[in-house]
Every structure is written in C-alpha cells, then in structure tokens.
Amino acid sequence: MKEVDSTNDSIQILGNENEIDAKDEQVSTLQERLKEVENRLDQERFIWVITTVILIDALIFINLENWSGPFVIGIFELIGLYVLADRLKIDTVAPLIDRLAGFAHRVAKTEKNTE
C-alpha cells in the first residue's frame, strides 16, 4: 500500500522501517545459526568416519602378516580423509597432514644421512 503526498510529490511506504530492519537482522542471525549447526554436523560426520576407519583398520590389520599392506592402506586412507575433510570444509586436517608429511620427510632425510 502506498500513500501519495500531493504537495511534495513523494511516495511513502506505509509501515515502520524499523520492523523491516528487525526482520532482516533476525533472518541473518538465523542463517548464521544454521551455518553453525551445519558445520557442527559436518565435523561430527567426519569424526564418525575416522572412528569407523580406525575400527575397521584394527580388525583388518590383525590378520595381515607384513607391514607393507597397512602402510599402503594407510596412505590411501590419508588421501581419502584429506579429500573428505576438504569437502566437509574442516580446516584442521590439512595442517595436521602437512605436519605429518614434513615429519616423515625429516625422518627419512635423517635416516639417509646416517647411512
């Protein structure tokens, strides 16, 4: 509904502008809360996947007789978990894997220098 003021030739919208601002603020806070809940659910999903992988690994690795099988499976699992963490937008996994890779590189380098 619009009200036209003939003296000033301006158009005014009936209603209070503060109500619109309050509704906009409420919508934005609800959207932020929804994003927080989605992030928590993604983190919980990632933790469940890691827990399941660890339990399955424990069952499978008991029956393996050499160390190469678990090593290869572990590398593939790290790659898969890295991709899953990236898709779920979990930022703490990439730095941890980078640190592990750096540690493995330093260990391999020191072992090569001692030989």
Question: If you had to describe this structure to a student in words, what would you say it looks like?
Answer:
The structure is a single chain. The protein is mostly helical. It has 3 helices and 2 strands, in the order E-E-H-H-H. The chain has helices at 17-63, 68-87, 93-114; strands at 2-5, 10-13. A two-stranded antiparallel sheet has the order 1-2. The mean pLDDT is 78.
What is shown here, in short?
With 115 residues, this protein is mainly α. Helices cover 77% and strands 7% of the residues.
Element-by-element helix/strand order? EEHHH
Q: What is the tally of beta strands?
A: 2
Structural class: mainly alpha
Low-confidence stretches: none
Sheet with the most strands: spatial strand order: 1-2
Mean pLDDT over all positions? 78
- Largest sheet composition: 2 strands, antiparallel
Cα(first) to Cα(last) distance is 86 Å
Please tell me what the overall shape is.
Answer: elongated
Relative strand content: 5-15%
Helix content: over 70%
How many helical elements?
A: 3
Rg is 28 Å
